[in-house]
Amino acid sequence: MKSLWNAEDAASLVTHYGGMGYPAELALRIYSCRLLGSDPRLVQHGGGNTSVKMRERIVTGEDVAVIRVKGSGWNLDAIEPAGMPAMKLAALQELKSIPQMSDEAMVNAQRAALLDASAPTPSVETLLHAWVPHAVIDHTHANAVLAIVDQPDGENRARDMYADVLAICPYVMPGFALAQKVRSIVEVHPSAQGIVLLKHGIFTWGESAREAYERMIAMVTRAERAVDAASGGMTARTTGGPRQGEALAARVMPVLRGALAEDLGAGAWKRVVLDRRESPEIMRYLQHPRLQAISHRGPVTPDHVLRIKPWPLVLQGLAGMSDEELERRVRAAVNEFRLRYRQYFGRNNQRVGGDRRALDATPRVVLAPELGLIGVGSRLGEAAIAADVAQTNAEVISAAESLGEFASLSEADIFDVEYWSLEQAKLGKSTARRLAGYVVAITGGGGTIGSATARGFAREGAEVVVLDSDMQAALTTAKAVQGLALTCDVTDRGAVAGAMDSICRRYGGLDVLVSNAGSAITGTIGTVDDATLRRSFELNFFAHQTVAQAAVAIMLRQKTGGVLLFNASKQALNPGPDFGPYGVPKAAVVALAKQYAIDYGAARIRANVVNADRIRSGLLTGQMIAERAAARSLSEAQYMGGNLLGLEVRPEDVAEAFVTLALAERTTAAIVTVDGGNVAASVR
Ligand code: ZN
């Protein structure tokens, strides 16, 4: 591992932050934090922490000694001065004399020492940083170091490798006790340049940001050399590679996603989103002959348990199974995992006095040698973090096994971190959005109503897939909602099947279909040519049937219900002159929705219709509005507001109706009208 320190970049950050009134030592501290954070082999996703001791002027005008420590909620790669809150150093040093302190009291003391009362809570390793008498301190969970210390004889290995420069600390849970332990060790090793924490990670320090950082790089490089010598190297992470098991993935993912959803009873589920990875390194790890054993020993560093639970679910031997066998196998494996997790909780909760609140028993990582490594989360972002952390675990475990034997913490130590009182206090405080965990596909998602609908679902926390025959339009909408864009001509059955497979491989399945694509085709019904009418039926009726059929097939494999939402039109209920080629297939769409509601109600799949009218869109352009208003001797505003409420109906109003129908858990076979009020077109 090479030092990335670049004097020019460092100087430009000093100038940048100097202009904002921050001293050079803080700017350089920020610079080295970002260097550490930029390499996932050192830290990832909020892992690791850093500090700097300096003097700052407080409100009375007095210069006091402060320590700035990484705050919770900040990642090192993107840290700013606000992410390193300052505390009075003296207030933290006073705590040295206390032999014991609860973690809650410790966090309170840290917050009470803040110069800015609104700053984020500093790392739980703050006291460790405060009590080590060096100006700049870096802490990482470097992969190569973990491969050395996550061994049954990790202490001897660490001593052989580092005894000339680093002190060594046995495993102690992070918090007050670890701070005291490290302080006592450093007191007897005053010349140490850092400390190795067995089964956890490494600290280095120095009198400048550069010194601490370059010591970190040098120490990690030593470990990397040992790993390289044993294994031929910890290869850099890559993406892509040969796509494996694609057809199997499209079949298995909805079954797996359905099994991972938690049944909340009364027709409700806590859904999850999946993120599958299949790089060559991952696939190699998954082929390990003792995958089950080595992946079940525990996390490679304690705080990973918060992201990936104590062990993954391993799913092997799926290829060649019939749909029924696959279903039985996957559900049995998930149930077995949950049972085992509940037993682990029960045993350990009893050990600590029985006051912990059980977390959900759903796996966060699935290792399936035929499919890849799959992260599980309540949102795609969370699933991706679980997959990243699991990938790091795979890398460290592989390296540790090539050196010797991978060993993790004891079960009790793992539980104590997973069920830490500070973590338990966070439970129930996050407000999940109403459609978090839902996957929604919207046809015609690049159009006016489609993109408003995509934004409406994204606001409620859903993962959104935008299907459109126009790739650019699909991409524009997908970008706005951080979703997936798929080019798809919905009148092409093969294209629809391909798109649905892509959705299953990307997210694991589908919960809501908004069948919205359509095109207004006009003509007098008595004289319209057959080809025009059939063309309209292809898009305005059969395409709805094709996407609904494909969506229902996925929903049935998940066994967690689902929602079909169709965009009909006023024409379906209140036909206008010369609009037959459009209105007749749309009337059939209303019948289609009712038929799905009848045939799949028992599977908890709902089907509803939105009947919108007079929306500015690709179907009702500015030019059409001008012409129609003129034909009726009305202003455009009068024409667009020609309803009982006298208000123009916006695409967002239609989107709201789709979202509402997705949320209305006891509503099926319903038509919701969004037209500002038109009794002639109302449902009778
Ligand atoms: Zn740590």
Characterize the structure shown:
With 684 residues, the protein is α/β, with parallel strands linked by helices. The chain folds into four domains: 7-231, 3-Layer(aba) Sandwich (L-fuculose-1-phosphate Aldolase); 246-424, 3-Layer(aba) Sandwich (L-fuculose-1-phosphate Aldolase); 439-613 and 650-676, Rossmann fold; 617-648. Helices cover 46% and strands 14% of the residues. The protein is built from 26 helices and 20 strands. A seven-stranded mixed beta sheet has the order 3-2-1-4-7-6-5, sandwiched between helices. It has a seven-stranded parallel beta sheet with strand order 16-15-14-17-18-19-20, sandwiched between helices. Helix 18 packs across helix 26 and helix 21 packs parallel to helix 23 (580-600). The protein is elongated and about 100 Å long. The termini are far apart. The relative contact order is 0.07. The model has no long low-confidence stretch (mean pLDDT 94). The chain binds zinc ion. Zinc ion (ZN) binds next to loops.
Please identify, by name, the CATH architecture of the largest domain.
3-Layer(aba) Sandwich
CATH superfamily of the largest domain: Class II aldolase/adducin N-terminal domain
Would you count the extended β strands for me? 20
Tell me what portion of residues adopts beta-strand conformation: 5-15%
